Amino acid sequence: MGFSASTTRPQVMPRPHWHNQLELNYLHEGQMTYFMGGQRVEVPAMRLALFWGAMPHQLVQVMAGTRFSVLTLPLPWFLSWRLPPSFSERLLRGELMLAEEESRLGEAMADWSTDLSTGQTELIQVVLLEVEATLRRFALQRGVQPQAPSGDPTAIERMCALIARRYREEIRVEDVAGEVGLHPSYAMRLFRTATGTTLGDYILQHRVSHAQRLLAATDDPVDLVAAESGFQSASQFYEQFKRRTGLTPRRYRLQFSARDGA
Description:
alpha+beta, 2 domains, 3-stranded antiparallel beta sheet, globular
């Protein structure tokens, strides 16, 4: 995915997904709703939305006629800009941040898509500078607030919300099923049918995402990162982290130290 931009008609996602890039969304028209962090978040037209894709997220509702531009940005590049810590930390904790004012960013995002498609180094650098300026302006906005949850949660959403709150704890299938008053076996089948993944894998993805944030933003020892992220053993942490990111925890962290030294 890397550094890319496009304009398209968004589609409802059949299940949550995740990636390690920062994601910018801008709706030219229409409205859509994400489910992430255990709640529904509405994104209206002409308001820049920003989130870290490593947190499981799912587009669950799209108004007819909605058109949006989406840009993905490698996380090490974003962190190298050293934006205000309070701003970066909110993103890395899984918050979808929504600009409080409408903007005319649509034309710029269309230009970014065209420029990146050329593959020309100079144009890519220009886009990077413009994206950095956009995010710096975004970070300086007063009163940027997360959107309030919308709609009544379904059983799946309630299970996801419990996991989002408690993934760093020792959490059992029985705990998640009890949240919605279902038999554990039925809750597991229902969850997998709705999300395309198991309860266990969903919990592990949250833990790995938490570890990614700590590795990128702190100097904590790797073993401490594992424990703080909810892993019961170092071996499980190393196995799951590499399986989901393609890198060992230490190599993942080196991306950021290398970028800082550039």
